[in-house]
Write a sequence for this structure.
């Protein structure tokens, strides 16, 4: 499957606020419908966050996750569901990881270190906000650290190991790769691992081709090419350039409205399906093909639930 690459679609996330786009999915039905649209265009994995249906505020409410998962599985039993443990601002580690024992997903995100969480910068240009919680979150994020301590990471990895969930390891900077080496050395996780390079978030590494190459070359040097699979994305306008470079370097890709709300420089994406369709079109120009869910399972060593 040398020409097969996994496309992950991050459906809604917890960074973007409803004020930013009328197309941002909020309710369980909207999130599920966007997952179907992404799958129809070639996504093998959907990365899921939950939001309060009435106002779009990020939530760790397991009943909302349950409704989203049930809606997806009622129509599509093949797509790989990757649940977030990133959560939202102010959530405890226990809240963030609670989706794993409850739902036992095939994949779940696991962050590899702490960073200054500078996503407030993308909200500051909006003078009028749709919901009161958006302004409250803006103020909270200005002094926020996205905390992922070594005890936090070890606890999350142990929970995932117990419930048969493979971690999707989110690396926001090069130092996070060295954190992973420590976790491997202490037996907190076993190879082969699955890395997601996150670029372009203020507080983490930038989203230039030099930054992505540095992440990739460092992983090759300290992990070894046979010990990991990897994917990458760039936040905002860097989404497609970073993903294209990832393809050229042999990696997989992630797109979606969690990371980017624009289809092109001046055109909003009306759905996650449009973002996946564009990514797959670029992929095919390079004589590559999107992996099916079962092919993605083979690449990542997953066992279908």
């Amino acid at each position: 499957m040398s020409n097969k690459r996994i496309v992950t679609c991050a459906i809604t996330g917890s960074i973007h606020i409803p004020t930013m786009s009328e197309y941002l999915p909020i309710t369980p039905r909207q999130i599920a419908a966007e997952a179907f649209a992404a799958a129809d265009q070639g996504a093998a994995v959907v990365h899921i966050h939950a939001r309060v249906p009435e106002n779009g505020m990020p939530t760790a409410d397991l009943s909302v996750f349950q409704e989203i998962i049930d809606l997806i599985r009622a129509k599509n039993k093949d797509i790989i569901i990757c649940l977030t443990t990133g959560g939202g601002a102010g959530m405890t580690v226990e809240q963030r990881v609670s989706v794993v024992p409850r739902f036992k997903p095939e994949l779940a995100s696991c962050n590899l270190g702490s960073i200054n969480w500078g996503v407030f910068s993308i909200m500051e240009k909006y003078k009028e906000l749709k919901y009161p919680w958006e302004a409250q979150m803006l103020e909270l994020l200005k002094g926020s650290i996205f905390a992922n301590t070594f005890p936090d990471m070890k606890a999350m990895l142990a929970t995932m190991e117990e419930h048969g969930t493979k971690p999707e390891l989110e690396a926001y900077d090069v130092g996070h790769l060295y954190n992973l080496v420590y976790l491997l050395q202490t037996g907190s996780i076993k190879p082969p691992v699955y890395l997601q390079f996150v670029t372009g978030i203020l507080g983490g590494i930038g989203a230039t081709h030099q930054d992505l190459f540095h992440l990739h070359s460092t992983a090759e040097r300290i992990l070894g090419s046979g010990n990991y699979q990897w994917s990458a994305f760039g936040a905002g306008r860097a989404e497609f350039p970073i993903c294209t470079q990832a393809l050229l370097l042999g990696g997989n890709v992630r797109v979606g409205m969690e990371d980017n709300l624009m289809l092109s420089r001046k055109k909003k994406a009306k759905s996650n399906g449009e973002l996946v369709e564009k990514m797959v079109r670029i992929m095919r120009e390079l004589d590559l093909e999107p992996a099916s869910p079962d092919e993605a399972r083979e690449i990542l060593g997953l066992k279908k639930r």
